[in-house]
Amino acid sequence: MLFQPVNKNYHEFCIIRDKDLCINCKVCVRQCSYEAHYWDESRQKVMHDNTKCIGCHRCEALCPTAALNIVNKPSDFRTNSLWRPVFLQNIYKQADTGGVLLAGMGSPVDIPVYWDSMLLDASQVTNPSIDPLREPMELKTFLGAKPKRVKIVTGKDGKPELKTKLSPQIELDVPIMFAAMSFGAINFNLHRAMARAATETGTVYNTGEGGLHKSLYKYGKNTIVQVASGRFGVHLDYLKAGVGIEIKVGQGAKPGIGGHLPGEKINDQVSETRMIPIGSDAISPAPHHDIYSIEDLLQLIFALKEASEYKAPISVKIAAVHNVAAIASGIARAGADIVTIDGMRGGTGAAPAMIRDNVGIPIELALAQVDQRLRDEGIRNKVSIVAAGGIRCSADVVKAIALGADAVYIGTATLIAVGCTLCGRCYTGKCPWGIATNDPKLSKRQNPDIAAKKLANLIRAWGHEIEEMLGGMGLNSIESLRGNRDKLRGVGISDIELDILGIKHAGR
Amino acid sequence: MKAPDRYYDFQKDISGCGIFGVIHKGRGMISGEIPIQGMTCMHDRGNGLGGGFAAYGIYPEHADQYAFHMMCDDDNAIEGSEKMLRTYFDMHHFEPIPTRKILAIPKPPKFNRYFVTVPEKPVNEFAELPEEDYIVAVVMKINATIPGAFVVSSGKNMGAFKGVGFPEEIADLFCLDEYEAYIWTGHNRFPTNTPGWWGGAHPFTLLNWSIVHNGEISSYGINRRYLCEHDYLCTMMTDTEVVAYELDMLIRKHGLSWEMAAKCFAPPFWDEIEKMDEKDKELYTTLRATYGPGMLNGPFAILVADNNRLMGLNDRIKLRPLIVAEKDEMVFMSSEESAIRDVCPELDRVWMPKAGEPVIVDLED
């Protein structure tokens, strides 16, 4: 044990075990799916190997005597602002394996978080703030294309008669949806929990690209089914199962590349739902091989509309990249009803670290530009905008809507609600919290009843907070906040950033 | 249209106010003394930084011509606006708007009125536009391109008179006691954040529309962006402007009735829509889903008039006062009952309109 290779020495975490408190009960041994804790037969006590710890805090949470603490390893590399520790660790790893660096969850890199640079307004004196406990406060949102104008004639009975037919819409009681996380990437317990929580709170969840388990079809009114480049689990009944269909072109965490669900995660249920053999890798290609340009996207949009008999709005999800505004405009013109933009901080089960941390742009800038571009071109009514990627709290939701989003997706926040600690090892299939794993022993750590309750609680809590903020601004309906950038002010950001966000600086 | 650069960087007037309106359903002429007295009664609802009136039926001899009330800061503005009016219109008559010299307003801008029609075959960039769009385009062009010139009103057989001062001072300045009209609206302004600007006073007008407004439109930020998508540029620094443009869009361009336009401004709540029959449910769902960005959110009481009617409307939870009263063929709408009682002590009927329910009074023909 005296000599260890350099990559063994520079692990990230240390397990601190209080020997006085530890009763050698082996809970930690059983809980740690990475085998950082073990029973030492010769010493007759629980020991641990720091190099295996991934910092998930599962052992710490379940230790009955609170004997455990997980801390960052105090020893550090020599300070160097160019060669920060992460680069050294990565190089050691790659020199050993020759492989692509994998990462899970959203990018942790230090790029500006514009949510934190925007502040909200509130009413004082000249207009009254509205108390949501005493007055109606409306968060109802419709996703889908809207007509430019409504034609109403006066009927024979003198009453107004509607001549404009509204195209299909997704009706949301709260403008927050559970983001696309496939069955397979996360397990069935959580899919069931999302479906139930969405039904309970009047919102929707997105199946992700892994198909829809046959027992979840009954939650169709609260489901958006996704069609991604691998076409896993896509068939006619599936397309007709939900209230919306989403074509996934890109994902904020890994723009420009496809997906990879390792064969270890493909059990019988996943296999049946995805329509692929048990144990085979599920690899989604980088592009859709029937979409090599915008005119192809148009064809797929209408193929899906035909298949679903024009009963469901079609969303197209793209990653926020440099020309996102022009791309979104093209998507709107290609006949999509919803454009979903996923910012570079969006989560993932597995992405090459280089891509996750270096490709794409923050959602705030992308959203602001897309909304403005669609308005400038007079086609904002043709599509709803859904923003995703790094929305952490209800204030982020309010800011996103004020920038121009119709609704938001929450993915990472959804998982945190059921216990995720962002350890970022989703791709290993060993998730100690029972989330990103299909191992029956681990996945039963998620009780679908409790998880559904927690998710519904989160939506309700954020809904209440949005109502409070809305009322404070003197508004009683979410549509008066949507795109209302006068309710936002920037702090500590440059003129060019303010201009891109389309907001004034605080104090103005 | 594409939003101009830095369109988000605007200043907005915030104000509380008093409003008063009266209509004679039989087109009987009402002396200017009535609205002046009503507004004077509500003196305390303003702070001397804005007052104004709109009057319908005041130019019967030019009833088929557009009456442009021009406000100009200096001779260059007069020259420029006059030149532009002559370029785009046939001019039939013009004159200074009569004013008195009054102590309260020592240096008012210069006011002229021009009675014009659209040439049969105009040769200019707006030639293809329908007549009313043509008028709007010229109004916007004058306001945007001629420094110091401002179109106060541009409708037929109507005019607006407004400025920085208490309404009774503005009335005195413009000799409004000498006018008679079958619809009057009046406004008293209490801005809190902007120095008075003559153009920013109410009524706000476009074509035959005139609007007086008490309130703050908290949805202004999205309303102005929405209007920009529909080719209306908000330049007046007042949220009342959006009411005028939205009326023009909803009623004139999209062909909605006044009632339906009012339902876009102050739509029924979703739980009310939920209880409606299928037909109305679909109607109001479509209306809200489509015109949501145009909804006026925040406290307001507005009076809207054109040549044929007067409408009073409150926001959805009635955060500003509005009272309506009838006496014979006259209908009054006011922020305070005292103002109505002051000009007409005996009334047939007095009521508080419900939140979001428009009161529309049509002329009898």
Structural features, described:
The complex is a heterodimer of chains A (508) and B (365). In chain A, strand 20 (384-388), helix 12 and strand 21 (407-410) form a beta-alpha-beta unit. Chain A starts with 5 loop residues before the first helix and ends with a strand. Chain A is of the alpha/beta class and 508 residues long. Chain A contains 16 helices and 23 strands. In chain A, the strands form 8 sheets. Chain A has an 8-stranded parallel beta sheet with strand order 11-21-20-18-17-14-13-12. In chain A, strands 6-22-23 form a 3-stranded mixed beta sheet, covered by helices on one side. A two-stranded antiparallel ribbon of chain A has the order 1-4. The longest helix of chain A is centred in the last third of the chain and has 25 residues, at 448-472. Chain A is globular. Chain A has 2 domains: 12-103, Alpha-Beta Plaits (2-Layer Sandwich), CATH 3.30.70; 142-147 and 174-505, Aldolase class I (TIM Barrel). Chain B has a 7-stranded antiparallel beta sheet, covered by helices on one side. Chain B has a domain at 15-58 and 157-215 and 242-256 and 298-362: Glutamine Phosphoribosylpyrophosphate, subunit 1, domain 1, CATH 3.60.20.10. In chain B, strand 15 (323-327) and strand 16 (330-334) form a beta hairpin. In chain B, helix 1 crosses helix 10. The mean pLDDT of chain B is 93. Chain B has 10 helices and 18 strands. Chain B has 365 residues and is α+β, with helices and mostly antiparallel strands. Chain B is globular and about 60 Å long. Chains A and B meet through helix 11 of A and helix 5 and helix 9 of B.
